[in-house]
Amino acid sequence: MKLAAACFVLLVLLSAATRVAESSRPVAGGHHDVSTQRRHQHGHKHGGHHHHDGGDDNDDDDDDDSPPPPSSKKNRPQKLFVFGDDAADTGNGDDDVKLGARSSQWRPPFGMSDAAHAQRPSGRFSDGLVQSDYMAKIMGHAEAPPPYTYDNWADNGIDDAGLNFAVGGATVARDAQPGPSLGDQISQLRDLIRDGIVKRKDLRDSVALVAYSGNDYGYPKEDEDDDTMVAKVVDALADLVSGLQDLGMGKVLVNTLVSYGCEPWLTRKTTNYSSCDDTGNGMSDKHNTALRDRLADAEDVMVLDVNSVVRSLVEPKEGSTLGGKQLKERLRPCCEAADPDAGDYCGLDDAFYLCDHPEEYFFWDLAGHPTQAGWRAVMQLLQGPIMQFLGISNLEHL
Description:
It is a single chain. This protein has helices spanning about 5-15, 15-20, 70-75, 130-140, 180-195, 200-205, 225-245, 265-270, 280-295, 305-315, 370-390, and strands at about 80-85, 160-165, 205-210, 250-255, 300-305, 335, 350-355. Helix content is about 30%, strand content about 5%. By secondary structure, the chain is α/β, with parallel strands linked by helices. It contains eleven helices and seven strands. A five-stranded parallel sheet has the order 2-1-3-4-5, with helices on both faces. Strands 6-7 form a two-stranded antiparallel ribbon. Helix 4 runs parallel beside helix 11, helix 7 (about 225-245) packs parallel to helix 9 and helix 10 runs antiparallel to helix 11 (about 370-390). The N and C termini lie far apart (about 40 Å). Pfam families: Lipase_GDSL (PF00657). GO terms for molecular function: hydrolase activity. Belongs to the 'GDSL' lipolytic enzyme family. One of its GO terms (biological process) is lipid metabolic process.
């Protein structure tokens, strides 16, 4: 009855690294000290940071409704604030090796294709760059905004590119599981505003990416049917979008969910990677329909149809050239656990098979994380709509 939810539970058991982020690091809320969330000082190459005035409150900025000078808005890329989970995490997750599968993104072969980070793991759930990296490039930034846990907020303002709060395994409904939620990430931004590190007026021309992959659906409750669960999750996402706008965020983009029936954790058992299994799409289809309906009339909000683009790439129609000749393996993952039923996972020593050419694969691992090549193909197809929504005229090569 709940095939998609049951399959997600299977994913949690077999590939915990990809859907569970039960981090030992405390998550900042309204009462946490921001400084405790920092991993280490991060040197980013965006032309410096904006220094803050060290004030205790940022309320004075709310009264400053004067627009920025026309030249500054024209020449300066918009800041990007990222919220979400595995799809956009660039290093916020815990790297403690004792966590096993839950910190596998910090171990080889993760990062093997990432020339920007010396082909080493950087906390991204891929062999290289992820969605937030390409979103930043579309917006004209040389690099993605740094992870929230990296920068020293006591001495510097936020990076010119913005800030990434996303952490792998995050949920949107607080009672879904112990650990971080997207609401906690909004609280982290609110804390920075309260402490004068982020100015509300700086958010007016900024962009928020909400990259949610559906982790809540991996924790079904016995007394909830699918429709009830979808309604709860979509309501929470809509409240999160409203919260960002209340803080002054200029524009917000929200991902649709990728069809679960196309992800390797399911197609491995049902079709041997030969095709998507549409019987597994019930929950993701319901979510995407409800999300579109709920946000249809929201101003300055774009539902980013990641799902339709992924479907067109992994199951192209006859004669389609989407993805070109480069993507030869559309459903089989590049990094495949030797025996996932026994707890093997990508990144566990001598417990996975690795392809020779990840640039030819769409999926990186069994959990359905795209490769760098996969994310690049997705964001190339979404670049036009994103540029139109954000009013960007300069085409960046991804």
